[in-house]
Write a structure and sequence with these properties.
mainly alpha; two-stranded parallel ribbon; 2 strands
């Protein structure tokens, strides 16, 4: 589902208007933690960006284990690299 919503990172309007975006975000809000594994690095950062833009009062945290996670870590309010 994530790949379908966030298929084009160059146009934010595409994923904000995607019919599955609201369903995905509702599911995220019902969860204490959202884990995006085995997903392209740009998709992970777009998930964080979308949550931050839709829900201004939510603090996002990201944990990554390599250089490919840097965009996601920079997007989050709190980011940490683990080795």
């Amino acid at each position: 589902m994530i790949e379908q919503i966030f298929s084009n990172e160059n146009d934010e309007a595409i994923y904000f208007q995607h019919p599955l975006t609201d369903i995905f975000l509702d599911l995220c809000l019902q969860s204490k933690t959202v884990i995006c594994s085995r997903t392209a690095p740009n998709i992970k950062s777009l998930v964080v960006r979308t949550v931050k833009k839709r829900f201004k009062d939510i603090i996002t945290a990201s944990v990554g284990d390599g250089a490919n996670d840097v965009p996601m870590l920079k997007e989050a309010n709190i980011g940490k690299i683990t080795h």
